[in-house]
Amino acid sequence: MIRRSRPSEKRPPVDEIMPPEGVPLKLKVAGVGVRLAAQIADVLITFVGALAIFLLLIALGATDPTSTLAIGVMLFFLIRVPYYVVSELVWNGQTLGKRLMKIKVVAHDGGPLTTHAVVARNLMKEAEVLLPATLLLALDADEPVLMLLGLAWIVITLLVPLLNRYRMRLGDMIAGTHVIHLPVPILLKDLAAEAPRGAATGDRFTFLPHQLDHYGAFELQTLEKFLRVEERSVALSEYTNHRATLAAIVDRIQHKIGHADPIPPSDHREFLRAFYNAQREHLEQRQLFGDRRKDKHFAASSEDE
Amino acid sequence: MDQGQLMRSARFRKEREADWKRLERLVTEAETHGIQHMSFAAARDLSALYRQATTALAIAREVSLDKALLEYLEALTARAYLSVYAPQERVGGVLRRFFAQSAPRAMRRSWPFILAAYLCLGLGVFVGYLLYQESTGWYHVFMPSGLAGGRGPEATTEFLRRALYDEAPDKSALGAFATFLFSHNTQVAFLVFGLGVFLCVPAILLTVQNGLSLGAFFALYVDRGLGVDLAAWLSVHGVTELSAICVACAGGLQLGWAVLFPGDRTRRDALRHAGRDAAKLAIVAAAMLLVAAVLEGFARQLIQQPETRFALGWGVGLLWLAWVVLAGRSPR
């Protein structure tokens, strides 16, 4: 039997980074598609820059037709290499293309992004893909061995990111970096802190502890999501549909917790808000005592352990 | 609703919300203008508020079930973390430090690999030379036809001589520079470095093969009594360019060595560790190739006497050696 070196559950989650402060942060690893898009944008930018200088040189008559291709390739190379390194140093791990796609390079171990890391990952990019690609274009057909070698090399390096959890290129592995999506902080209003509409809601609906013992954090947060959609004004065409969903949810909760009194449709929303507040307070209270309830199956799962 | 009626987690949020909003503004400022351009007070507040937010996030994960709050704090703290731990170096300083200290130190540290690379090249030259002496047929085995440019065993001695002392090349100096920058040897250098990751073997093979063709080429000229002239012709850029190939090979060997013999580390860690020096070697190789291209594109056409060619080529080589041996030593 093949011995696994480590059980997979022990590994930290992919999207987590441990900064020196010791509180793990969630930073979503960027996929290959987004990075390819950023890369294409960067190649276009550097290409246009090289083209501009190239046209200027032709206008000044500094070149002659026999070496046009060589000069073009050289300009592209001389502009491209510093572009990646300098932009990632100045913009903290972002090139223009990466800014466009809202992705960023971070140090894999959570430390600061060092100069060495930036230089190493971008140099490897040259050796990995860009130079072999340029050489493939420049090579003659009478060197099939070199051509095949270059092609195989490019294919292999492009496959590497697909084979590890962090989508690291070879350059990322050597530099100790990976690429993440830049998180966007948006603070929504606190549902529980707002004054519920309709006076004295707190008195109209009261929930007993045993009624609040049915649900866990997952259901609570699903309800939160639904209530936030509710916040936004709903188009008239969706209105009936929406009322129906609301009624269904209220009915379901009432049934589950054994809330006997009938609730008129006009009060559905208030009922849900009150239930959300009560449920959240209850679950947070339980959590303080070390009783985390992930979802409604918490009773069954805690017996297993 | 007043404070007393709020539940614990809502109160927690209300007390800190103003700080978070301020942190959000500071992070945006740091991201757009850079931390170096922020005022002292703003930079100080940024790091202080970042640490507070980290603590708040740790607490919120324990006490709050408000998903919106948790997601906001996660994102805000992550953004602040990215600005606080940003690279703080200026590009000019990086360049100076690299050439004055870190690069020569890395070169000295990896001397066994560089030595091994030179040995590979030397071995190739030696074997190529001997094989040509045995049979001129070997020449076409080692020499890519595109590179030879008609310079083969069949060519007349006069033709070979003219190739060495070609007064008027039909290319502009810039064009020559560009062509030689992307010459065969540059391709070899980059392939040699990149392929080092694949367990050293391709890097060694390519370096030896390069040496073989050089040896055969040399043997051809020695055969026609043009050995010294060729040596002079090659010296101008060859000393720098062949050294660049060896340095690139040494970088590749170092990476391959790390993968083959990681020691106590995991392979990925070993690769990362070796990468620190290997990347520097690659940059040095690239810089040397640039210098070689300048020498080949400009200097070689201007200087025609073998003695001057020798002096220039080996002089530049000595400068490289002095730089590697002497630069970046810490004073005792």
From TrEMBL, chain A:
The yes or no answer to whether the keyword Transmembrane is present is yes
Which keywords does this chain's UniProt record carry?
Membrane, Transmembrane, Transmembrane helix
Q: Which residues form the RDD domain?
A: 29-176
Q: What membrane topology does this protein have? A: Multi-pass membrane protein
| Main location per the UniProt record | membrane
Per UniProt, subcellular location reads as: Membrane
A UniProt-annotated Pfam family: RDD
Residue ranges spanning the membrane: these are 43-62, 68-86, 144-163
Protein name in the entry: RDD family membrane protein YckC
Organism the protein comes from: Rhodobium gokarnense
UniProtKB/TrEMBL annotation, chain B:
Q: Which Pfam families match?
A: SpoIIM (PF01944)
Q: Tell me if Mitochondrion is a UniProt keyword of this record.
A: no
Transmembrane parts of this sequence: 111-132, 188-208, 242-261, 281-299, 311-328
Please list the coiled coil stretches: none
Keyword terms, alphabetized: Membrane, Transmembrane, Transmembrane helix
Q: InterPro entries, per this entry?
A: SpoIIM-like
Protein's UniProt keywords contain Transcription regulation? no
Top-level division of the source organism's lineage: Bacteria
Tell me what this protein is called. Membrane protein SpoIIM required for sporulation
